Amino acid sequence: MENTVNTAPVGQLKTNKGLLKTILLSLITFGIYSLVVMSAVSNDINIVASRYDGKKTMHFCLLFFIIAPITLGIAGIVWYHKISNRIGNELKRRGITYGFSASDYWLWGVLGSLIIVGPFIYMHKMFKAVNKMNAHYNVNG
Fold this sequence. Notes:
This protein is mainly α and 141 residues long. The protein has six helices and no strands. Helix 2 (32-53) crosses helix 4 (74-93) and helix 5 packs antiparallel against helix 6 (118-140). The longest helix is centred in the last third of the chain and has 23 residues, at 118-140. It is globular and about 40 Å long. It starts with 18 loop residues before the first helix and ends with a helix.
């Protein structure tokens, strides 16, 4: 009897994350929707990549409500850096030709805040990367 690795998807991951939808629904729900979306991003990367890279990304709510306030926001910076690299590495591992990494966080999310629209560009790029990753996972496991 052969030992085969089961690569079937656990379930279908959502591929409809978008910047405009997140902004509008976050305004209507007083920011709760953005917590839901970022929680989904942290869950999605753990579902898709953990069996390959052996890492586990901290849940966004734990970061947002407990860890980041204790560390005066430094943990949030580290979290965004790490999750950006992890998403980018998973895209490369899956052969998806979309460039995304921690440099996007530092250039758009941090430095881009000087031109105000930078963090929005970063979030758009992150949502697009996660949507591509999830779509590939939904088909290939």
